Amino acid sequence: MKSFRFKSLIRKYTVSFTIEYPVNQSKPTNPTDYDDLGKPINSGSQPTVQQSEGAIVSPTDKQIYQSGGRITSSDRLLYSLVHDIPDKSKIRYKGTTYSVESQSDYSDIADFSVYTLKGVDQFD
């Protein structure tokens, strides 16, 4: 099956951003592995950070409406030629941090993936 090539279109609107991959750690099982707020204490491992490129766009009003409130105007969609950005990764672009919520992989019929990026509250 012949796949569609969107590489030139995505490259036309490409921007640079930083990906912070989540730290792979096992779930803490000891009660002392949690802080006073119930969050797991970091094991000292540092997340992997990498520069990448892709087209980051705001969702359309129709996409926001059809999502039933799951997508908001502060979220973004990332069109990327990279197919292996894991969920929960942090995307930093223009001073704003987004978390990868989901991926739509079109690699079977095209040469790109679409990631839904949720805006991260600066107090998290």
Structure description:
By secondary structure, the protein is mainly beta. The protein is 10% helix and 33% strand. It is built from two helices and six strands, in the order αββαββββ. The protein has a six-stranded antiparallel beta barrel with strand order 1-2-3-6-5-4. Strand 4 and strand 5 form a beta hairpin. Residues 25-29 have low confidence and may be disordered.
Topology:
Blueprint lengths: L6 H6 L2 E6 L28 E9 L3 H6 L9 E5 L9 E4 L2 E10 L7 E7 L5
Antiparallel strand pairs: 1-2, 1-4, 2-3, 3-6, 4-5, 5-6
Order of helices and strands: HEEHEEEE
Detail the poorly predicted runs.
25-29
Q: What's the number of extended β-strand segments?
A: 6
Compute the number of helices: 2
The rounded distance between the terminal residues' Cα atoms is 45 Å
- Rg over CA atoms: 17 Å
Strand order of the largest sheet: 1-2-3-6-5-4
Helix content: under 10%
Structural class: mainly beta
Strand content: 25-35%
What's the main sheet like?
6 strands, antiparallel, barrel
- The overall pLDDT, averaged over residues, is 82
Which geometry do the CA atoms define? globular
Features:
single chain; 124 residues; mainly beta; six-stranded antiparallel barrel; 2 helices
Task: Offer a concise description of the structure.
This protein has 124 residues and is mostly beta strands. The chain has helices spanning 7-12, 61-66, and strands at 15-20, 49-57, 76-80, 90-93, 96-105, 113-119. It is built from two helices and six strands, in the order αββαββββ.
